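Hi there, hope your week has been kind to you so far. Do you reckon you could talk me through the fold, stretch by stretch? Thanks so much in advance, here it is.
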Amino acid sequence: MENKSIKKNYLYNLIYQVLILVLPILTTPYISRVLGPENVGIYSYTISIVTYFSLFGSLGVSLYGQREIAYARENNSKRKKIFFEIIIFRFITMLISIAIYFFTFIRNGEYQEYYQILIIYLLAAAFDISWFFQGMEEFKKTVTRNVIVRLVSVCCIFIFVKEKEDLSKYLLIYSLADFLGNLSLWLYLPKYLKGKTIKNLNIAKHMIPIVLLFIPQIAIKLYNIVDKTMIGYMIEGKAELGNYEEAYKVINVLFTVVASLGVVMVPRIASVFASGNKKKLNEYIIKSFAFVFFLAFPMMFGIITISKEFVPIFLGQGYEKAATIINILAPMILLCGITNVIGTQYLLPTKRQKQYTISILAGLIVNIILNLILIPPYGAYGASIATTISQFIVVVVQIYYIKDEININKAFFPGRRYLTSSIVMFGLCLLVGNFIKNEIASVIVKIIIGGITYLLMLILLRDRYVKEVKDIILKKLKKE
């Protein structure tokens, strides 16, 4: 029943996480052509700026709230009290952040029109309560409502965004989708917040633990936005940033598939840790590592084999640099997967915020330093190199912190099987690609041959994931 629950929640979360990234990716070929690299770069730059204010206003509420709700899941009155304390705290901090944003960007400065629209994005962050449902392990509810909102937003993009001058409309749709999606989750709250009126709320007691989680959270967010901000600030024109933005989207979608298990495992691991079951805790972590390697290695090598043909088909003209950027960022799929297991799934739920924070800050410092050195001469290529190296630093530091608690050799051993299979897949795809001149045909053939080769290799190596799927299929065929 427990494994069934994890698999079910993983599926729901996978649908949601991929949805919020795949739907924009589905619109990318259209948007990249309609808006052009310059406006895509402006979009990326203004979003990166407003994200700082969203981050500072939200502090570390999402992870902290998810963890605290998970701890109090079975206690209705305690759960209700925690929710109201945390949400009031978040409203206060977001109000302060919005006020600062108003006086620094909305009242004056470049791109003022776009910053005015993006205040809706900050309001969306204030009303985000997805952490509550994640803590309750109720992933179906977050998926159902957001699927509807996201699909409507995609339709709106195709209907209203028709030319380069429609960047403001695109930003409005982007912001409203987040706002309406977050607001819709409030409709489910009454079911979980029944009981007596809560008195004696103690909002202040959450401040220190939230702030402690805020430091690693800001570092994580900076990984996603500081490179974009620095490219936009240091390189004249925004076309360079447009190339980086679209390449990063592709890598981020692949990583989302790998990391989706992490969001499901956090409340489960927090609950197991609270019960003191260290054996079960280690078992979950080792399984998570195997799952990351199973998906990350073929995705990493696979995207490199098709990037050259994929980019002009997908993005159109003006994004020639994006293919090389994708290749440089490809190891991020694996590296972020590893840090998701160690950091998000292990260190944070087990209240090891200090070690987690140190690892993230180490990577962030390296990232900023390398960006300052590499962006001026190499532009987006330099930022890509800096991001990948800094993520590797995070992995090294986190492994150092857990080496005496988790059997690293046992956790990483399954990775050899997936690495070997992926290298064979990579070599065969490159060989086949030499004989196909048509770009679309090359991408399709490489994906098909790559997928078949990877699965056949895992069957030969007797991989347990493939064996489980094979056993399920055979069992169903026998019943029929």
Summary: The two ends are 25 Å apart (CA to CA).
